[in-house]
């Protein structure tokens, strides 16, 4: 399963990324299904009913839906860490180290993803300067998007997106974790790619309710930042996307279901 807030956009790009790094999946009868944030309010049984008789190998995405029975691989792990190796292991049906299923359980802080000894130094040590992590993330996402987007020029757009996120960070008063940055950057790039053309539901009722009630200040900040970005690109952007942006920023609370 490839997941994001809406089920299209970031999830679709992540699906393309998986196919790029793991060619031949279709020949092996492995299907990548894009799903939206609403699966976070469902049990494992509900998700299994949605996918029919298919066996769910893993969930890859910008946001963790916290479903215990399904291994989750974050976008940053897929780009920089052991995410590809973990997914290949899961697909191969080999003996799986339980630590591979939920590596974050062994990590004390959320902004230091699990990694192996062979990983590049980018995310393997807390001593790595955050600026280096961020610049590497921007570069990698720019490269990834340049392979798949039809209209957007990622090289020109990513600095604007990064600046928009910096504006939000200043007003909110915090620096976001690398996983949150990855989700935001990919989501914003997909917003710019599709513009106002998409006719589907942009914001789920779950996100709208939770954000409106719990994070009105962040919602106001993200709306202003979205307007700045819209002015910079001289193109209107859906105001409702501010809900999704806050949803990514405060994803921990979004995924607590009653």
Q: Residue ranges: pLDDT <50 for 5 or more in a row?
A: 94-98, 105-131, 252-258
- Largest sheet: number of strands, sense, barrel closure: 4 strands, parallel
Count of DSSP H/I helices? 12
Give the distance, in angstroms, between the N- and C-terminal Cα atoms: 23 Å
Strand content: under 5%
Give the spatial strand order of the biggest sheet. Answer: 2-1-3-4
Say how many strands there are: 4
Mean pLDDT: 76
* Structural Rg: 18 Å
Elements, N to C (H/E): EHEHEEHHHHHHHHHH
- Counting helices, strands and paired strands, the structural category is mainly alpha
CATH class of the largest domain: Mainly Alpha
Counted up, domains total 2
CATH architecture classification name of the largest domain: Orthogonal Bundle
CATH topology of the largest domain: PTS-regulatory domain, PRD
Helix content: 40-55%
């Amino acid at each position: 399963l490839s997941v994001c807030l809406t089920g299209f956009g970031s999830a679709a790009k992540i699906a393309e990324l998986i196919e790029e790094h793991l060619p031949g999946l279709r020949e092996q009868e492995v299907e990548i299904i894009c799903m939206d944030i609403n699966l976070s309010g469902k049990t494992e049984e509900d998700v299994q009913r949605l996918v029919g008789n298919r066996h769910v190998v893993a969930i890859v995405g910008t946001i963790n839906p916290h479903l215990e029975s399904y291994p989750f691989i974050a976008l940053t792990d897929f780009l920089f860490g052991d995410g590809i190796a973990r997914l290949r292991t899961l697909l191969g049906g080999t003996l799986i180290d339980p630590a591979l299923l939920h590596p974050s359980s062994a990590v004390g802080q959320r902004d230091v993803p699990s990694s192996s000894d062979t990983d590049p130094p980018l995310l393997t040590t807390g001593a790595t300067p955050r600026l280096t992590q961020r610049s590497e993330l921007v570069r990698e996402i720019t490269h990834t998007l340049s392979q798949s987007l039809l209209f957007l020029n990622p090289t020109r757009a990513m600095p604007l997106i990064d600046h928009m996120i910096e504006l939000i960070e200043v007003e909110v008063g915090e620096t976001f974790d690398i996983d949150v940055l990855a989700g935001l950057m990919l989501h914003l790039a997909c917003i710019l790619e599709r513009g106002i053309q998409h006719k589907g539901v942009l914001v789920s009722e779950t996100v709208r309710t939770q954000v409106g009630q719990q994070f009105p200040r962040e919602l106001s900040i993200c709306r202003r930042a979205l307007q700045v970005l819209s002015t910079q690109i001289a193109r209107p952007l859906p105001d409702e996307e501010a809900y999704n942006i806050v949803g990514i920023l405060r994803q921990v609370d979004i995924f607590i279901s009653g």
